[in-house]
Structures are given as structure tokens and as C-alpha cells.
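[Automated response] Your request has been received and processed.

Submitted sequence:
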Amino acid sequence: MILVGFLAGWLGWTLAEYLLHRFDMHGRRGAMAHEHRLHHAGRPLVPDRSPRGWVGAALLAAVLAWGTQPAVGAGWLVGHAAYDLRHWAIHARPPRGRYGRWVRAHHLHHHVVAPDRNYAVTLPLWDHVFRTHARPAAEPASPARPVDGP
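Generated structure:
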């Protein structure tokens, strides 16, 4: 039962990540829309890993853990951590391995070619479910250089 709760929490995070990215960050009046538009413009190219997202994820994980079971909250928090680290790595360093190259190409296609496609970062399943997946032909060039870089 613990594993099922953990997987439910993790899967719930991946769905929330997709929905937040698609409807809030890409919405006209979303709470995170302005900051996300700057991210797409390459200012900064490497995402700010501020504690705001962690605080929100931790609070919701606590509510989920209290209202259901601790494993659900733990799955949610691990899902957020996976997203945060993966998104940072996509923009901050060259990909490692086959999966790293694939997920980077998937996400940079969203940035460079089709901002109305490929909203999911952690689990592209949701792009297939909601029919927003676009298959990148190849890894697109990075949209800009990191602001801290040379």
C-alpha cells in the first residue's frame, strides 16, 4: 500500500507539473506567466531554483500526507525534486546518456520550435494524453546562452 501511495503522489505531481506549465505559465494571467516568459526568452536560460517552488511543493506534500497517507506526500515531493533537478539539468549542462538527450530534445523543442507543445518535463506521458506532444526532429540548439556564462 505504501508503494501505491508513493506512486500516486509522484504521478499526481507529474500531472500538476503539466497543468501548471500549460495553463498557468503559458496563460496570459497566470501567477507564474511573466517569469516563465522571461525563462523562454533566455533571461535566465538556466532556471532560477528559488525556494518558492519548494515551499509550495512541501506544503502541498504535507497536506497530502496528512489527508491521505505519508507515502502520497513523499511521492509528490520526490516528483517535484525530479522535476526541479531535471529542468535545471536540461538548461545548465550537456545531457548525459540516451534518456538525457531525449528529454532535453523534448523540452528544448518546446522552447525553440513549438511553445504550445511538450509542456511536460518529468513525464511526457501527459503530452500524449492531452495531445500536445510534438516529436523533435533532432535536439534543437539552445535558445540562448546562460546569463552567467561567457
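Summary generated for your ticket: Residues 144-150 have pLDDT under 50 and may be disordered. DSSP finds six helices and no strands in the chain.
If you did not submit this request, please reply to this message.
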